[in-house]
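Standup notes
- DV: blocked on the single-chain target, sequence here:
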Amino acid sequence: MKIKLPADPAIADYDARQAERMQVLRQIGEVSRRKEEARERFLAAQTDQSRALLDASGRDLSQAAFHKSQRELDESEVDLRMQLSTVEAEIEKLSRARNKAITAANRAAYVDTLRRRARALVEVAKLNDAGRAFHDGMRDLGVSGSLRPMAVGPVGNWSDNQSVAQFHVAELRENFFELTDEDFEG
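- DV (later): unblocked, structure below
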């Protein structure tokens, strides 16, 4: 069964927020990468015998410059993480509306599937009853033969109130108001 995605604003908003979340995560990764590169440059400069304060590109390699750079990157990361938290909270809220919209758009198709399965299940359970009645009738006549009983055991018999078929139908009636007694006639 193909799931329908309705043209609902909650779905579009959810998708947009997910894209925004991915963008923020990429930015956090970029900040982490830049922090690590700066740390590596600083450590390399610290082990350099000349202890130059500037590299070949003119970047300040002093400890004060390193700490300032790290502080700025840390602040940027904190801001991005706060933004991420906000976006994830919005996604959580939109997720509920998105789920409702998708469920509503697909409920009728799912109920139709349940209806067809219920009819088939009831029919199999009633055929199990018919098979049992047939073999009981053969035994009553004293006929034994090679007609092996072929009931679908896990389904049970419709006449058995404790059968899987009976329990399944009761559960369907309880949870899907759209199904009527006619849906359970095999």
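- Follow-up: The longest helix spans residues 63-140.
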